[in-house]
Amino acid sequence: MEGRRNQLSVFDASHSARAYWDRAAETYAQDFSATFIGKKLRGQVWDKLDRTFLPGDRLLELNCGTGIDALHLAAKGMRVMACDISEKMIEMAHRHAEALHFSAKVDFRVLATERLATLDSDAPFDGAFSNFSGLNCVEDLGEVRRNLGRLIKPGAMLVICMLGRFVPWEMAWYLARGYPDRAIRRLQHQSEPANENGALRVHYRSRREVVTAFAPEFRLRSWGGIGIFVPPIYTEQRARRYPQVVEALDAADRLVGHLPVFRNLANFMLLEFQRSTATRSNHAEHLAGS
Known about the structure:
Elements: H1 2-25, H2 28-33, H3 36-52, E1 58-62, H4 68-75, E2 79-84, H5 87-100, E3 106-110, E4 125-130, H6 141-151, E5 152-163, H7 168-176, H8 180-183, E6 190-191, E7 194-195, E8 198-199, E9 202-203, H9 207-214, E10 218-226, H10 236-239, H11 243-256, E11 268-275, H12 283-289
């Protein structure tokens, strides 16, 4: 009976997430991808992806949204299987690919991250990635780890971008507006923010928790912060008034994003893992070295 209840809970969460992102797809560009701040944040992630993966690589993308990252990599000569839980997001991604004549290089799939096991027949991949907060909405990162461990080649790289937990920008913004609960929401293990799109469960995990969840199949190679000085997306209206200031903040992000202390204050943490055959015995060594 307990197992049945857990299955129903996962089904309900998946259904809710699908409905949320289907609605969010309608305004995704104006809310994030086409914004001044959104482009700056994404540009920092692209720098990492461009350095990590090579032309000719066949990659797997989780939580691809409208396909912006997949199409960027396709333009660099890579092939991408890009998955997202939202049918609406994938419809938009198909249209973008057709407009850019990249349909042959990107295979878009309507697929929840929790169902990666269904891609076993499509393996192996030369690497995988997930941008921004898609994996923050996944209940069990251990299941993601196990599936990716089968899907990508030994030695291949996994790049993931997830929400950070301690963000001074966000704290100051909400405290100044009289919302102390929002100011500290990321310090809680999970939150269910509600807006016009409904409720979505978001897990605010620490870097150590993420590293633990992906071991032993994946070893952390490096990590940095995205959005240390560049403000969060909800400051977009004000940021557009001072584009030169945001340009300078973006440059500062790139300069110190890999440094200790600074990277712990970022809106997003960008982690690079390598597929390995690590055992539980040397897992502690990996954590200590990170």
